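User: I'm preparing a small set of examples for a lab meeting where we compare how different chains pack in three dimensions. I only have the primary sequence for this one, and I'd like the structure in C-alpha cell form so I can line it up with the others. Please keep the answer compact; I'll paste it straight into my notes.
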Amino acid sequence: MDLFSWPPVAALLDAAYRLVTGLSAAAEPIAGTAAGVVAVVVLTMLVRALLLPVGVSQVRAEYTRRRLAPQIAALQKKHGANREKLAEATMELYRSERTSPFAGMLPLLVQIPVISLVYAVFTHPMIAGHANELLGERAFGAPLGTSFVGLTGAGPVWPAIAVYLGVLLLIAVVTTVSRRVLALPQAEGSASPTGMVRALSFLPYVTVVFAAFVPLAAAVYILTSTTWTVAERWLLRRLLDPARKGPAGTARPSPSH
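Assistant: Understood. Below is the C-alpha cell output for the 257-residue chain.
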C-alpha cells in the first residue's frame, strides 16, 4: 500500500499541493512561465523556516559533541580495555553535562515526515485521486514533471536542457560550498579523520546524480533545501558558537583596532 494514498496522509499531501499551486497562480502575473519554479522555492523556504528549531538543536548538539571530544578520547585511553567501564564513564560524562550522545537526533527524525511529504508533492503524478497539475507546467521550456535523464523523450531538448544543467550545476556548487565552509575545525585531543571519513565527505555529491533522475520540480526543491541548509548552518554556527562568548555566557568584547 502506498503510504501517500492513506486518507490522513493523502489529505495532508493534497493540502500541500493546494498551497503550492496557489503560490504558482499568485506568482504567474509576475514570474510568467517560471511561476511553478517560484512556487516550489517559496514552499520549500516556508517549510524550512518552520523547521528552524531543528537546525538550532543540531548545531547545539554539534558544539556539545566537539567540546566533549577530548574528554571522551581520554576516557577511551583510560578504559579502552574495559568496554563496560568505558560505557559507564561515558554515560556519566554525558549525565554530568546534562546532554546525551543522541542529542540532536530526535529533532532530525521528527523532520523526516515533513520533508518527505513536501518532496512527494514534487514527484507524485497523482495526489489524492487527482492529477498533479504542477508537474504539467513548464519553466523556460523545461517540463517540471520530467527528469534530466528522461528529457530526451519529452519533446524538444533545447532550451530545456540548459535549465536542467543549470539546476544540476548549482546543486554541485552548493554541495562544494557546504564541504568547504561547514566543516568544523578538528577538536583538540580528538582523533584525526580516517581515510574512510574523508571518502565519505564526498558522499553529498551523490545528490547531484540523484537530482538528475527526479522531476525538475523535485530537483529545484533539492537545490533550494540544500542552499537553505548551508546558509542556516553557517549562520547558526556563528550565533551559537561558544567561542564567541565569555566565561559568563556574555558576548566576548571585540578586539580593539
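A couple of notes for your slides: The chain has a mean pLDDT of 84. The chain is about 60% helix and 5% strand.

User: Perfect, thanks.
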